[in-house]
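Q: Please design a sequence for this.
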């Protein structure tokens, strides 16, 4: 290698005679030339970005219409996460939205998770449109997984079920970097432009009503983004608010909390500025039915751009009971949020 470099340098020197100063003696000229050649462009150049995967890989099993919808969904996911990050960077914990969802936790962790959605390398990941695990046709799983989750307190990894069929699922132990998007998603997910439309409210709607939040959730399952650290510690709106007060360390790495926060601040800051569509958890939901402690740093934070959120944030309740969760699930189906997963 060095010999080759030296040979090249000597050849260059002989050919041009212009690399070294003519005022130096001959032996000094040779030394200078060799040094330049070894450090020059002939050496192997390291490109840190070589082999990076900046775009979400869409599997060949996706047809043209699925592909174009997924590309749009990914762009919206990045937009949603980017705004959530910028909201926290701008307002920190002076935002009532921040304290409502993340309590008194430091801001760096949610910023980091949102930034991973925006910019983490997508190497090895696949979004597929076939049905390799045979889960897309399955029905009636949602109740089962809700029950399982609440009986166990929390679960380590969740297979995502749906009342009327599956919108998609993380392949889990079958392929940890792969996500299946089932046909149901293409006919049920809304674009971000529909934020606050169709009767949607953050508190009363499903976190997967929108493509962007649904994909965000699926990315949190994949190690590239969630690092096996983002978990399902609390699921529905009321439970997420309770978690912020009781356990901020888990709130900042709770999948649904991050989604609710992103949706809420996008609605308030971008879709309907200064108004948003936080809403209230529906009657008969765990939020309305449950009673419990309402102590929260969120409820005391009335300053900042979202001061009017304080009343909303003060309705924090304890985690729902199993019976309440089942009620919530059937209500959700009745009020036409069929795409629970
Ligand atoms: C907000 O963050 C500051 C530190 O930057 C901290 O002193 C304060 O307690 C936090 N407030 C809340 C409500 O978490
Ligand atoms: C893994 O594959 C098996 C059978 O192929 C299937 O029953 C199971 O549901 C799959 N797991 C997930 C998380 O999809
Ligand atoms: C692509 O797949 C979807 C199912 O997700 C199907 O409804 C649609 O007809 C397919 N489109 C084409 C062009 O084959």
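A: Design:
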């Amino acid at each position: 290698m060095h010999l080759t470099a030296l040979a090249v340098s000597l050849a260059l020197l002989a050919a041009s005679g212009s690399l070294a100063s003519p005022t130096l003696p001959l032996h000094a000229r040779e030394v200078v030339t060799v040094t330049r050649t070894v450090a020059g462009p002939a050496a192997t150049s390291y490109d840190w970005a070589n082999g990076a995967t900046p775009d979400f890989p869409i599997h060949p099993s996706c047809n043209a219409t699925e592909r174009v919808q997924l590309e749009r969904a990914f762009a919206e996911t990045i937009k949603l996460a980017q705004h959530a990050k910028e909201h926290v960077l701008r307002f920190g914990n002076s935002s009532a939205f921040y304290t409502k969802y993340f309590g008194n936790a430091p801001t760096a962790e949610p910023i980091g998770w949102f930034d991973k959605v925006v910019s983490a390398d997508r190497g090895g990941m696949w979004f597929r449109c076939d049905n390799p695990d045979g889960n897309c046709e399955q029905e009636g799983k949602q109740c089962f997984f809700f029950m399982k989750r609440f009986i166990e307190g929390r679960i380590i990894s969740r297979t995502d079920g749906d009342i009327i069929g599956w919108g998609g699922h993380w392949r889990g132990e079958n392929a940890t970097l792969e996500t299946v998007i089932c046909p149901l998603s293409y006919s049920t997910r809304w674009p971000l432009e529909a934020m606050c439309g169709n009767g949607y409210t953050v508190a009363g709607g499903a976190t997967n009503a929108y493509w962007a939040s649904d994909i965000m959730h699926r990315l949190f399952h994949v190690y590239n983004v969630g690092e096996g650290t983002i978990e399902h510690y609390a699921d529905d709106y009321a439970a997420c608010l309770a978690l912020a007060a009781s356990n901020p360390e888990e709130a900042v790495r709770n999948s649904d909390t991050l989604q609710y926060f992103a949706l809420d601040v996008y609605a308030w800051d971008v879709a309907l500025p200064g108004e948003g569509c936080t809403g209230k958890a529906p009657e008969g939901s765990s939020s309305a039915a449950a009673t419990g402690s309402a102590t929260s740093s969120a409820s005391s934070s009335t300053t900042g751009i979202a001061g009017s959120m304080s009343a909303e944030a003060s309705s924090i309740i304890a985690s729902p009971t199993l019976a309440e969760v089942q009620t919530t699930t059937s209500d959700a189906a009745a009020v036409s949020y069929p795409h629970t997963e």
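Q: Thanks. Anything notable?
A: The CA atoms of residues 65 and 96 lie 40 Å apart. The radius of gyration is 27 Å.
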